[in-house]
Design goal:
The protein contains seven helices and twelve strands. It is an alpha/beta fold and about 240 residues long. It has two domains: about 160 residues, Rossmann fold (3-Layer(aba) Sandwich); about 60 residues. The mean pLDDT is about 85. One of its GO terms (molecular function) is ATP binding.
Length: about 240
């Protein structure tokens, strides 16, 4: 279970504001985080991962304190069981696709590397470097690298937005399969209606520094409420059918 109640001063397009989210996520839940640009969604993920430090508050994961301002506790990122897929890929430019995955797996010739190369359909490009790949191809490598580590928590910052529809839907299914098989707790930042409905157990809408509403995706997206996030969720594409549970 993730229990987060933190605050951090940020500067947005309209000036300074305080990001102050507070929520609890049960183990195994797939949560979608939605909100307008500049509301702190990426910063929230980075604080959970330990890549940014909150100004105040507390983060607990499965009963373990990862951050507590008052107790002066801040677990370093490498000791948090988290896989993170960034918007900007964050691949090692001096490593080939295969070597990026081997590095994440922790050893060369790991059988999981071939499995993930097949999953992201980049077997033929496995010896190329990131600069030789398209943006969509780089994002697929970044996704595989995060999943190959078998983390407890998977953080996804719009990882599929650069992919074509067929690959995006395939990877959505693969993410959901691994989410279930590995018992992950996952948080996905997304503005795509079909993706949210297909993948999310629950949606959290972040606006004005805090959570304005939360609940089942279909209910939040379709109800006529100015604060429900419907104004920042795109129509998306593909089949929005919800996964079976």
């Amino acid at each position: 279970m993730i229990s987060l109640n933190v605050c951090k001063c940020l500067r947005g397009a309209q000036g300074p504001f305080v990001l102050h989210p507070a929520f609890t996520i049960p183990r195994g839940q797939f949560v979608v985080l939605n909100g307008t640009s500049g509301t702190g969604k990426t910063t929230l993920l980075r604080m959970l991962a330990g890549l940014e430090t909150p100004d105040d508050g507390r983060i607990l994961v499965d009963g373990e304190t990862w951050f507590d301002k008052n107790e002066r506790v801040c677990v370093p990122p490498q000791k948090r069981s988290i896989g993170f897929v960034f918007q900007n890929y964050a691949l090692f430019p001096s490593m080939t696709v295969r070597r990026n995955l081997e590095f994440a797996a922790g050893r060369r010739k790991d059988p999981r590397v071939d499995m993930f190369l097949s999953m992201i359909e980049l077997e033929e490009l496995q010896y190329r470097y990131p600069e030789e790949l398209s943006g969509g191809q780089q994002q697929r490598v970044a996704l595989a690298r995060a999943l190959i580590r078998r983390p407890k928590i998977l953080l996804l910052d719009e990882p599929l937005s650069a992919l074509d529809e067929a690959i995006r839907e395939k990877l959505q299914e693969e993410i959901l399969r691994l989410h279930q098989e590995l018992g992950l707790t996952s948080i996905l930042v997304s503005h795509d209606r079909a993706e949210i409905l297909r993948m999310g157990d629950r949606i959290l809408v972040l606006q004005e520094g805090g959570l304005t509403c939360e609940g089942p995706p279909f209910h939040i997206i379709t109800r006529p409420d100015e604060k429900n996030g419907s104004g920042v969720i795109s129509a998306g594409s593909g089949n929005p059918a919800r996964r079976s549970t």
